[in-house]
Amino acid sequence: MDILKKIIRAYNSVSLILRITAGILLGIVLALLFPDLGIELLGDLFVGALKSIAPILVAVLVISSLCQNSAKLDRRFLLVIILYLLSTFLAALLAVGASFLFPQTIELATETTEQAAPGGIGEVIRNQMMNMIGNPIRSITEANYVSILLWSVILGLALKRVASDHTKKSLSDLSEAVSLCVRWIINLAPFGILGLVYDTVAGKGLEVFASYGKLLLLLVGCMLAMVLIVSPAITAFILRTNPYPLVFRCLRESGITAFFTRSSAANIPINMQLCEKLGLDRDVYSVSIPLGATINMDGAAITITIMTLAAANTMGVEVSFATALLLSVVAALAACGASGVAGGSLLLIPMACSLFGISSDVAMQVVGVGFIIGVVQDSMETALNSSGDVLFAATAEYYEWKKQGRPLPDFMQRGKKKYKD
Fold it and tell me: Bigger pLDDT: 11 or 416?
Protein backbone atom coordinates (compact mmCIF):
# COMPACT_ATOMS: atom_id res chain seq x y z
CA MET A 1 0.00 0.00 0.00
CA ASP A 2 2.85 2.39 0.83
CA ILE A 3 4.43 1.67 -2.56
CA LEU A 4 1.13 2.46 -4.29
CA LYS A 5 0.84 5.76 -2.40
CA LYS A 6 4.38 6.69 -3.40
CA ILE A 7 3.60 5.94 -7.05
CA ILE A 8 0.47 8.09 -6.89
CA ARG A 9 2.34 10.95 -5.22
CA ALA A 10 5.12 10.75 -7.82
CA TYR A 11 2.52 10.73 -10.62
CA ASN A 12 0.71 13.76 -9.21
CA SER A 13 3.96 15.65 -8.64
CA VAL A 14 4.60 15.79 -12.40
CA SER A 15 2.93 18.55 -14.44
CA LEU A 16 -0.24 17.40 -16.19
CA ILE A 17 1.07 18.83 -19.48
CA LEU A 18 4.25 16.73 -19.18
CA ARG A 19 2.20 13.66 -18.36
CA ILE A 20 -0.03 14.26 -21.39
CA THR A 21 3.03 14.77 -23.62
CA ALA A 22 4.45 11.47 -22.36
CA GLY A 23 1.12 9.79 -23.09
CA ILE A 24 1.13 11.14 -26.66
CA LEU A 25 4.66 9.94 -27.36
CA LEU A 26 4.07 6.54 -25.76
CA GLY A 27 0.84 6.13 -27.73
CA ILE A 28 2.67 6.80 -31.03
CA VAL A 29 5.49 4.37 -30.19
CA LEU A 30 3.13 1.58 -29.10
CA ALA A 31 0.93 2.05 -32.18
CA LEU A 32 3.92 1.72 -34.50
CA LEU A 33 5.44 -1.28 -32.69
CA PHE A 34 2.31 -3.12 -31.49
CA PRO A 35 -0.70 -2.06 -33.66
CA ASP A 36 -2.88 -4.89 -32.25
CA LEU A 37 -2.26 -4.23 -28.57
CA GLY A 38 -5.83 -3.03 -28.00
CA ILE A 39 -5.14 -0.20 -25.55
CA GLU A 40 -7.51 2.12 -27.44
CA LEU A 41 -9.98 1.12 -24.71
CA LEU A 42 -8.21 3.64 -22.44
CA GLY A 43 -9.18 6.44 -24.80
CA ASP A 44 -12.78 5.25 -25.06
CA LEU A 45 -13.08 5.10 -21.27
CA PHE A 46 -11.59 8.58 -20.82
CA VAL A 47 -13.80 10.28 -23.43
CA GLY A 48 -16.82 8.33 -22.23
CA ALA A 49 -16.24 9.43 -18.64
CA LEU A 50 -15.90 13.09 -19.67
CA LYS A 51 -19.00 12.96 -21.86
CA SER A 52 -20.97 11.33 -19.05
CA ILE A 53 -20.01 13.78 -16.32
CA ALA A 54 -20.08 16.96 -18.47
CA PRO A 55 -23.91 17.33 -18.74
CA ILE A 56 -24.29 16.77 -14.99
CA LEU A 57 -21.50 19.24 -14.25
CA VAL A 58 -23.05 21.91 -16.49
CA ALA A 59 -26.51 21.53 -14.96
CA VAL A 60 -25.27 21.53 -11.35
CA LEU A 61 -22.83 24.44 -11.81
CA VAL A 62 -25.33 26.68 -13.60
CA ILE A 63 -28.15 25.97 -11.13
CA SER A 64 -25.87 26.40 -8.12
CA SER A 65 -24.30 29.61 -9.45
CA LEU A 66 -27.58 31.30 -10.33
CA CYS A 67 -29.39 30.39 -7.12
CA GLN A 68 -26.70 31.91 -4.91
CA ASN A 69 -27.27 35.48 -3.77
CA SER A 70 -23.96 36.51 -5.31
CA ALA A 71 -24.75 35.00 -8.70
CA LYS A 72 -24.92 37.55 -11.49
CA LEU A 73 -24.66 37.75 -15.24
CA ASP A 74 -23.37 41.28 -15.76
CA ARG A 75 -21.66 43.10 -18.64
CA ARG A 76 -18.81 40.58 -18.54
CA PHE A 77 -21.23 37.91 -19.71
CA LEU A 78 -22.55 40.19 -22.46
CA LEU A 79 -19.00 40.87 -23.65
CA VAL A 80 -18.24 37.14 -23.74
CA ILE A 81 -21.28 36.51 -25.95
CA ILE A 82 -20.26 39.35 -28.30
CA LEU A 83 -16.72 37.95 -28.56
CA TYR A 84 -18.01 34.44 -29.25
CA LEU A 85 -20.24 35.62 -32.09
CA LEU A 86 -17.71 38.08 -33.52
CA SER A 87 -14.90 35.53 -33.67
CA THR A 88 -17.15 32.96 -35.34
CA PHE A 89 -18.12 35.45 -38.07
CA LEU A 90 -14.49 36.54 -38.56
CA ALA A 91 -13.49 32.88 -38.87
CA ALA A 92 -16.02 32.39 -41.68
CA LEU A 93 -14.80 35.60 -43.37
CA LEU A 94 -11.18 34.42 -43.07
CA ALA A 95 -12.13 31.11 -44.69
CA VAL A 96 -13.84 32.92 -47.59
CA GLY A 97 -10.72 35.03 -48.22
CA ALA A 98 -8.43 32.00 -48.05
CA SER A 99 -10.69 30.03 -50.42
CA PHE A 100 -10.58 32.86 -52.97
CA LEU A 101 -6.78 33.03 -52.71
CA PHE A 102 -6.29 29.26 -52.81
CA PRO A 103 -9.34 27.77 -54.57
CA GLN A 104 -9.86 24.06 -53.96
CA THR A 105 -11.76 21.31 -55.72
CA ILE A 106 -12.77 17.92 -54.37
CA GLU A 107 -12.42 14.55 -56.06
CA LEU A 108 -15.88 13.21 -55.37
CA ALA A 109 -16.62 9.53 -54.89
CA THR A 110 -19.10 7.69 -57.09
CA GLU A 111 -21.14 6.57 -54.09
CA THR A 112 -23.14 8.93 -51.93
CA THR A 113 -23.40 8.97 -48.16
CA GLU A 114 -26.87 8.31 -46.81
CA GLN A 115 -27.23 10.76 -43.92
CA ALA A 116 -29.86 13.27 -42.90
CA ALA A 117 -28.85 16.92 -42.94
CA PRO A 118 -30.61 20.25 -42.35
CA GLY A 119 -32.38 21.62 -45.42
CA GLY A 120 -31.82 25.32 -44.73
CA ILE A 121 -30.88 27.93 -42.16
CA GLY A 122 -34.52 28.12 -41.11
CA GLU A 123 -34.48 24.43 -40.28
CA VAL A 124 -31.27 24.84 -38.30
CA ILE A 125 -32.83 27.64 -36.23
CA ARG A 126 -36.05 25.67 -35.77
CA ASN A 127 -34.12 22.59 -34.64
CA GLN A 128 -32.21 24.67 -32.13
CA MET A 129 -35.41 26.21 -30.77
CA MET A 130 -36.98 22.77 -30.40
CA ASN A 131 -33.82 21.45 -28.76
CA MET A 132 -33.99 24.26 -26.23
CA ILE A 133 -37.33 23.12 -24.86
CA GLY A 134 -36.48 19.41 -24.81
CA ASN A 135 -37.22 17.28 -21.78
CA PRO A 136 -34.56 18.30 -19.22
CA ILE A 137 -33.95 14.73 -17.97
CA ARG A 138 -33.61 13.40 -21.50
CA SER A 139 -31.41 16.39 -22.38
CA ILE A 140 -28.93 15.38 -19.67
CA THR A 141 -28.85 11.75 -20.83
CA GLU A 142 -28.47 12.80 -24.49
CA ALA A 143 -26.06 15.71 -23.76
CA ASN A 144 -28.37 18.31 -25.35
CA TYR A 145 -26.49 21.33 -23.98
CA VAL A 146 -28.82 23.98 -25.38
CA SER A 147 -31.70 22.49 -23.42
CA ILE A 148 -29.53 21.85 -20.34
CA LEU A 149 -28.49 25.50 -20.28
CA LEU A 150 -32.02 26.82 -20.73
CA TRP A 151 -33.61 24.67 -18.01
CA SER A 152 -30.66 25.14 -15.65
CA VAL A 153 -30.92 28.92 -15.98
CA ILE A 154 -34.70 28.82 -15.39
CA LEU A 155 -34.40 26.48 -12.39
CA GLY A 156 -31.44 28.40 -10.97
CA LEU A 157 -33.29 31.74 -11.13
CA ALA A 158 -36.41 30.15 -9.60
CA LEU A 159 -34.38 28.63 -6.74
CA LYS A 160 -32.74 31.98 -6.12
CA ARG A 161 -36.17 33.35 -5.22
CA VAL A 162 -37.60 30.46 -3.19
CA ALA A 163 -34.76 28.26 -1.93
CA SER A 164 -33.70 28.34 1.71
CA ASP A 165 -30.11 28.90 2.77
CA HIS A 166 -29.85 25.20 3.60
CA THR A 167 -30.93 24.25 0.05
CA LYS A 168 -28.47 26.69 -1.48
CA LYS A 169 -25.69 25.28 0.70
CA SER A 170 -26.62 21.75 -0.38
CA LEU A 171 -26.47 22.76 -4.04
CA SER A 172 -23.10 24.41 -3.46
CA ASP A 173 -21.79 21.22 -1.85
CA LEU A 174 -23.15 19.14 -4.72
CA SER A 175 -21.42 21.45 -7.17
CA GLU A 176 -18.11 21.02 -5.34
CA ALA A 177 -18.54 17.23 -5.27
CA VAL A 178 -19.21 16.99 -9.02
CA SER A 179 -16.27 19.32 -9.71
CA LEU A 180 -14.03 17.06 -7.62
CA CYS A 181 -15.15 14.04 -9.64
CA VAL A 182 -14.21 15.93 -12.79
CA ARG A 183 -10.76 16.74 -11.41
CA TRP A 184 -10.21 13.03 -10.70
CA ILE A 185 -11.11 12.18 -14.29
CA ILE A 186 -8.89 14.92 -15.71
CA ASN A 187 -6.00 13.67 -13.60
CA LEU A 188 -6.17 10.42 -15.59
CA ALA A 189 -6.08 12.27 -18.93
CA PRO A 190 -2.56 11.01 -19.87
CA PHE A 191 -3.81 7.41 -19.95
CA GLY A 192 -6.89 8.38 -21.95
CA ILE A 193 -4.90 10.40 -24.48
CA LEU A 194 -2.41 7.54 -24.77
CA GLY A 195 -5.32 5.34 -25.88
CA LEU A 196 -6.71 7.97 -28.26
CA VAL A 197 -3.35 8.54 -29.95
CA TYR A 198 -2.75 4.79 -30.19
CA ASP A 199 -6.15 4.27 -31.84
CA THR A 200 -5.56 7.07 -34.39
CA VAL A 201 -2.03 6.08 -35.39
CA ALA A 202 -2.67 2.31 -35.44
CA GLY A 203 -6.00 2.52 -37.25
CA LYS A 204 -5.72 5.50 -39.61
CA GLY A 205 -2.11 6.30 -40.41
CA LEU A 206 -1.28 9.28 -42.62
CA GLU A 207 -1.72 7.80 -46.09
CA VAL A 208 -5.48 8.36 -45.99
CA PHE A 209 -4.90 12.13 -46.34
CA ALA A 210 -2.77 11.95 -49.50
CA SER A 211 -5.50 12.73 -52.07
CA TYR A 212 -7.00 15.53 -49.98
CA GLY A 213 -3.75 17.07 -48.74
CA LYS A 214 -4.23 20.56 -50.23
CA LEU A 215 -7.78 20.86 -48.91
CA LEU A 216 -6.68 19.69 -45.46
CA LEU A 217 -3.74 22.11 -45.56
CA LEU A 218 -6.07 25.03 -46.29
CA LEU A 219 -8.40 24.03 -43.45
CA VAL A 220 -5.56 23.65 -40.96
CA GLY A 221 -3.88 26.85 -42.18
CA CYS A 222 -7.05 28.90 -41.62
CA MET A 223 -7.52 27.42 -38.16
CA LEU A 224 -3.92 28.20 -37.22
CA ALA A 225 -4.32 31.75 -38.54
CA MET A 226 -7.46 32.12 -36.44
CA VAL A 227 -5.93 30.79 -33.23
CA LEU A 228 -2.55 32.54 -33.61
CA ILE A 229 -3.48 35.83 -35.31
CA VAL A 230 -7.17 36.76 -35.40
CA SER A 231 -8.26 35.65 -31.91
CA PRO A 232 -5.13 37.15 -30.25
CA ALA A 233 -5.79 40.39 -32.15
CA ILE A 234 -9.31 40.54 -30.67
CA THR A 235 -7.93 39.95 -27.17
CA ALA A 236 -5.16 42.52 -27.70
CA PHE A 237 -7.70 45.11 -28.87
CA ILE A 238 -9.85 44.56 -25.77
CA LEU A 239 -7.08 44.33 -23.16
CA ARG A 240 -4.45 46.58 -24.80
CA THR A 241 -1.72 44.14 -23.79
CA ASN A 242 0.24 41.21 -25.19
CA PRO A 243 -2.35 38.43 -25.59
CA TYR A 244 -0.02 35.52 -26.30
CA PRO A 245 0.69 34.40 -22.72
CA LEU A 246 -3.06 33.88 -22.33
CA VAL A 247 -3.46 32.40 -25.83
CA PHE A 248 -0.68 29.85 -25.35
CA ARG A 249 -1.91 28.88 -21.89
CA CYS A 250 -5.39 28.23 -23.28
CA LEU A 251 -3.91 26.16 -26.10
CA ARG A 252 -1.68 24.22 -23.74
CA GLU A 253 -4.26 23.44 -21.06
CA SER A 254 -7.43 23.29 -23.15
CA GLY A 255 -6.50 22.94 -26.81
CA ILE A 256 -4.31 19.85 -26.40
CA THR A 257 -6.97 17.74 -24.68
CA ALA A 258 -9.67 19.06 -27.04
CA PHE A 259 -7.50 18.03 -30.00
CA PHE A 260 -7.59 14.41 -28.90
CA THR A 261 -11.11 14.18 -27.47
CA ARG A 262 -12.53 15.96 -30.57
CA SER A 263 -15.50 17.16 -28.54
CA SER A 264 -16.14 20.66 -27.21
CA ALA A 265 -18.76 19.20 -24.90
CA ALA A 266 -16.36 16.63 -23.44
CA ASN A 267 -13.81 19.41 -22.90
CA ILE A 268 -16.18 21.56 -20.81
CA PRO A 269 -14.90 20.16 -17.47
CA ILE A 270 -11.30 20.87 -18.50
CA ASN A 271 -12.20 24.43 -19.46
CA MET A 272 -13.99 24.91 -16.15
CA GLN A 273 -10.86 23.85 -14.29
CA LEU A 274 -8.69 26.18 -16.39
CA CYS A 275 -11.02 29.12 -15.70
CA GLU A 276 -10.63 28.43 -11.99
CA LYS A 277 -6.84 28.45 -12.37
CA LEU A 278 -7.05 31.77 -14.23
CA GLY A 279 -8.94 33.32 -11.32
CA LEU A 280 -12.16 33.96 -13.23
CA ASP A 281 -15.52 34.53 -11.55
CA ARG A 282 -17.28 31.20 -11.24
CA ASP A 283 -20.70 32.86 -11.38
CA VAL A 284 -19.91 33.95 -14.94
CA TYR A 285 -17.78 31.16 -16.41
CA SER A 286 -20.06 28.41 -15.10
CA VAL A 287 -22.59 29.70 -17.65
CA SER A 288 -20.36 31.19 -20.38
CA ILE A 289 -18.15 28.10 -20.85
CA PRO A 290 -21.03 25.66 -21.51
CA LEU A 291 -22.59 28.30 -23.76
CA GLY A 292 -19.28 28.68 -25.60
CA ALA A 293 -19.29 24.96 -26.37
CA THR A 294 -22.54 25.63 -28.24
CA ILE A 295 -22.09 29.01 -29.98
CA ASN A 296 -18.32 29.69 -30.10
CA MET A 297 -17.60 27.63 -33.20
CA ASP A 298 -14.76 29.30 -35.11
CA GLY A 299 -13.42 26.00 -36.41
CA ALA A 300 -16.86 24.84 -37.50
CA ALA A 301 -17.42 28.10 -39.42
CA ILE A 302 -14.10 27.59 -41.23
CA THR A 303 -14.93 23.98 -42.09
CA ILE A 304 -18.42 24.78 -43.39
CA THR A 305 -17.17 27.71 -45.50
CA ILE A 306 -14.12 26.04 -47.09
CA MET A 307 -15.87 22.75 -47.82
CA THR A 308 -18.85 24.57 -49.35
CA LEU A 309 -16.70 26.77 -51.60
CA ALA A 310 -14.65 23.72 -52.62
CA ALA A 311 -17.89 22.01 -53.63
CA ALA A 312 -18.91 25.12 -55.60
CA ASN A 313 -15.56 25.16 -57.41
CA THR A 314 -15.86 21.45 -58.19
CA MET A 315 -19.32 21.96 -59.73
CA GLY A 316 -18.18 25.05 -61.69
CA VAL A 317 -20.43 27.46 -59.77
CA GLU A 318 -19.51 31.15 -60.01
CA VAL A 319 -19.28 32.68 -56.54
CA SER A 320 -19.64 36.47 -56.34
CA PHE A 321 -18.33 38.61 -53.49
CA ALA A 322 -21.88 39.33 -52.28
CA THR A 323 -22.72 35.62 -52.23
CA ALA A 324 -19.46 34.84 -50.43
CA LEU A 325 -20.30 37.47 -47.80
CA LEU A 326 -23.74 35.91 -47.39
CA LEU A 327 -22.05 32.53 -46.99
CA SER A 328 -19.94 33.97 -44.15
CA VAL A 329 -23.08 35.02 -42.29
CA VAL A 330 -24.85 31.71 -42.96
CA ALA A 331 -21.78 29.66 -41.99
CA ALA A 332 -21.40 31.62 -38.73
CA LEU A 333 -25.07 31.09 -37.85
CA ALA A 334 -24.95 27.45 -38.88
CA ALA A 335 -21.76 26.89 -36.86
CA CYS A 336 -23.61 28.07 -33.76
CA GLY A 337 -26.03 25.20 -34.41
CA ALA A 338 -23.29 22.60 -34.73
CA SER A 339 -23.33 19.98 -32.01
CA GLY A 340 -20.42 19.89 -29.60
CA VAL A 341 -19.40 16.36 -30.60
CA ALA A 342 -16.92 14.95 -33.10
CA GLY A 343 -17.92 15.78 -36.69
CA GLY A 344 -20.78 17.99 -35.55
CA SER A 345 -20.14 20.67 -38.20
CA LEU A 346 -20.04 18.39 -41.23
CA LEU A 347 -23.77 17.73 -41.53
CA LEU A 348 -24.36 21.48 -41.86
CA ILE A 349 -22.36 21.62 -45.11
CA PRO A 350 -25.38 20.63 -47.31
CA MET A 351 -27.36 23.54 -45.87
CA ALA A 352 -24.59 25.96 -46.89
CA CYS A 353 -24.23 24.24 -50.28
CA SER A 354 -27.91 24.95 -50.96
CA LEU A 355 -26.99 28.65 -51.32
CA PHE A 356 -25.29 27.76 -54.61
CA GLY A 357 -27.91 25.30 -55.83
CA ILE A 358 -25.66 22.30 -55.18
CA SER A 359 -27.70 19.12 -54.85
CA SER A 360 -27.81 17.25 -51.57
CA ASP A 361 -26.43 14.20 -53.42
CA VAL A 362 -23.19 16.06 -54.19
CA ALA A 363 -23.16 17.84 -50.82
CA MET A 364 -23.32 14.57 -48.93
CA GLN A 365 -20.32 13.32 -50.89
CA VAL A 366 -18.50 16.42 -49.64
CA VAL A 367 -19.57 15.45 -46.13
CA GLY A 368 -18.05 12.02 -46.76
CA VAL A 369 -14.74 13.66 -47.69
CA GLY A 370 -14.99 15.65 -44.46
CA PHE A 371 -15.19 12.44 -42.47
CA ILE A 372 -12.15 11.03 -44.30
CA ILE A 373 -9.95 13.99 -43.34
CA GLY A 374 -11.76 14.44 -40.03
CA VAL A 375 -9.05 12.81 -37.96
CA VAL A 376 -6.97 15.98 -38.38
CA GLN A 377 -9.60 18.53 -39.43
CA ASP A 378 -12.02 17.80 -36.60
CA SER A 379 -9.23 17.64 -34.03
CA MET A 380 -7.91 21.06 -35.09
CA GLU A 381 -11.45 22.44 -35.22
CA THR A 382 -12.23 21.33 -31.68
CA ALA A 383 -8.92 22.62 -30.31
CA LEU A 384 -9.65 26.04 -31.83
CA ASN A 385 -13.24 26.10 -30.58
CA SER A 386 -12.56 24.91 -27.05
CA SER A 387 -9.45 26.98 -26.34
CA GLY A 388 -11.34 30.01 -27.67
CA ASP A 389 -14.09 29.44 -25.11
CA VAL A 390 -11.62 30.08 -22.27
CA LEU A 391 -9.68 32.78 -24.14
CA PHE A 392 -12.72 35.02 -24.59
CA ALA A 393 -14.15 34.25 -21.15
CA ALA A 394 -10.82 35.37 -19.66
CA THR A 395 -10.65 38.40 -21.99
CA ALA A 396 -14.01 39.67 -20.77
CA GLU A 397 -13.07 39.06 -17.12
CA TYR A 398 -9.65 40.72 -17.36
CA TYR A 399 -11.17 43.69 -19.19
CA GLU A 400 -13.34 44.28 -16.12
CA TRP A 401 -10.26 43.93 -13.91
CA LYS A 402 -8.48 46.66 -15.86
CA LYS A 403 -11.48 48.99 -15.57
CA GLN A 404 -11.41 48.44 -11.80
CA GLY A 405 -7.67 49.12 -11.64
CA ARG A 406 -6.79 45.52 -10.75
CA PRO A 407 -3.54 44.12 -12.17
CA LEU A 408 -3.62 41.29 -14.66
CA PRO A 409 -2.38 37.85 -13.50
CA ASP A 410 1.37 37.40 -13.11
CA PHE A 411 1.73 35.13 -16.14
CA MET A 412 0.41 37.96 -18.34
CA GLN A 413 2.59 40.59 -16.70
CA ARG A 414 5.84 38.87 -17.68
CA GLY A 415 7.08 40.31 -20.93
CA LYS A 416 4.08 42.57 -20.98
CA LYS A 417 3.62 44.70 -24.06
CA LYS A 418 1.33 47.68 -23.82
CA TYR A 419 -0.69 48.92 -26.75
CA LYS A 420 -1.48 52.57 -27.29
CA ASP A 421 -5.06 53.59 -26.68
Answer: 11
